[in-house]
Amino acid sequence: MTSVNTAKFSLITIAAGAVVMAFAHWVHVDYLFFASYTILQFIVLATAWNILGGYCGYVNFGSAAFFAMGAYASVFMHKFYPLPVPVLILISAIVSGIAGFGMGYLTLRLRGSFFAIATLALAVVLQTLVVNWDYVGGSRGAYIIRPEELEFAGITINYIEYLFGLMLLLTVIALITARTIERSQLGFGFATIRDDELAAEASGVPTLRLKLIATTISGAFMGMAGAPFPYYIGYLQPSSAFGLEYAVNSIAMPMIGGTTSWIGPLVGAILLGSAQQYATVTISSAVNLLIVGLMLVAFVIIAPNGLVGLVQGWRRAWRKP
Amino acid sequence: MTALLHVDNISKRFGGFVALDGIDLEVQPGERLGLIGPNGSGKSTLVNCICGTLQNESGTVRFDGHLIDGLAAHQRTHRGVARSFQLPRPFHSMNLADNLRIPLLYTVHARLGGLLRSAGELDSRCHELLEMVGLAKKAKQMPRDLTQVEMRKLELARAMAAEPKLLIADESMAGLSHSEIEDILALLVRLNERGITIILIEHIMSAVMSFSQRLAVLVSGKKIADGKPEDVVRDPEVVRAYLGQ
After folding, report:
1. Which of A36, A161, B42, B103 is the 20 to 30 Å CA partner of A155?
2. Would you say residue A239 lies in a domain?
3. What is the pLDDT of residue A1?
4. Domain count for chain A
5. Is A198 a member of any domain?
């Protein structure tokens, strides 16, 4: 396997991001920005989920809670003291990161399905809190009037293009982070937790500390993915921020792509995200989750290790005829 | 001489079941101790309490002059307690070399404050360890490709990778053939000659008798005998526990 070091990989990813941005700017169709924003947002969510779920093997059903936490942190700040979106992303990262740490501290003594149920409960508790919190709109939801354009250093850019650019940048950062973790001592440690926690401890791996690092990073990225969402959608209500599609997609996308490598969530999110966007436009938006369900069933049967696992299997068979 | 491991009056219960009932045990540096007892007598619980997988409810465990009660398992591994598991528990998504890399990175590296920085150094250590257990040729293979005896050897190599002072081998020979047992025994003796203290937990009496310098017997969570192997097996209480009366 050819190995590319982190600095080189970062440059390549940033360059790829720049090309995507330039292309989108050149095409300049608002719908393209809208649709790709959603896909990028899912790449970030899937990558974030995979840091805990794929690398450490702890299935988090509460992705929507972290996403919503990021979104509602933005709504709160919008009312309290409006700030530029990049700053809101940072604030959401901190809020969701702390929440991730807290959730980890409370639930990581549970394993397997017990952990998954605990994370699901977190989402329910949080949604109840938000529904009853009037300041951020409660169950009525909150309107955020998005400006048409943004003036920055004498250049005016379309606001949706601006949000798209931010999400693209987040995607690049998330992918670089995931790959760096994967190749580091931390990534090796995460893999031992996934394989066998008792043996990991016996080998000197501080499993609880590593799991807390994973929940914090994972939570922070999910929050970051949610931060620009109120500006993107214009009207945020609890049922959309805590939507089932976020929890389901952020699990399904890495599963379909492959959970052991950073490529998996990327491939899965692009594939599933595009299919959903296509279905939304051509058939109906309600078909979305049906597609996810069918694909998930198909992949669990045909390729339990995702597309990445499938390709690796072919390559291994190719080398050893 | 001060003992390397000093277990003082420890107890552990699971609900109403008393698994360990006031166990005392001392192990001297460089010693080869055999630990035997019928199924369910508390051997594995004792190992788990020494290694930190379980925490004893009363009594104390001292290792190398320090109290280690309440420390997590990985902290005890850092202090120099290593174990192999009764049923091999390899990291199944990693090849053999990477399996050994984990204790090197997380224990030896951490203990020495970063002496193992270079990748080359790590690789050569992994190779040495695999060489020691005769698995050097399979460094790039996955654990699922190994035979039972190779799996036990990997388990021991991984415990050894943490460079322990005390190695606890929990039934590393169960289910193996006679020649395979000889193989593992020879390996354990070689390790002991390097100065590592070993506690061997085993059901196979011929192996225990040839290996141990001292023998301790657990029955129903109590230690009923401790001494020279040939004396212990003649002890009437031990005979009664094993053969019934």
Report:
1. A36
2. yes
3. 39
4. 1
5. yes
The reported pLDDT for the residue numbered A2 is 45
Owning domain of residue A210: 6-243
- Identity of the amino acid at B168: I
**Rounded to two decimals, what is the model's pTM?**
0.90
B154-174: per-residue pLDDT in tens? 999 999 999 999 999 998 888
Percent of chain B scoring above 90 in pLDDT: 59
Residue indicated by tokens 């040495």: B128
Residues 104-133 on A with a CB inside 8 Å of B are none
Domain B5-243: CATH class, spelled out:
alpha beta
Residue A121: partners with Cβ closer than 8 Å, 6 or more residues away: A62
Give the residue from chain A lying closest to B103, CA to CA: A203
Contact B92 A202 (CB under 8 A): no
Q: Is residue A120 part of a domain?
A: yes
Residues 96-135 of B with CB under 8 A from A: 98, 101-103, 105-107, 110
Higher pLDDT, B178 or A111: B178
Task: Give the closest-approach CA distance of B244 to chain A in angstroms.
Answer: 35
* Rg of chain A (C-alpha set): 19
Whole-number Å distance between alpha carbons of B89 and A196: 7
pLDDT for position A286: 75
- Is A277 inside any structural domain? no
Sketch the domain layout of chain B as residue ranges.
5-243
| Contact assessment for residue B89 and residue A197, using Cβ atoms and an 8 Å cutoff | no
Q: Which chain B residues are within 8 Å of A185, Cβ to Cβ?
A: 105-106
Shortest distance between the Cα of A208 and any Cα of chain B, in A, equals 10
Considering only CB atoms, B72 lies closest to which of A189, A199, A201, namely A201
The band of A175, judged by pLDDT with boundaries at 50, 70 and 90, is very high
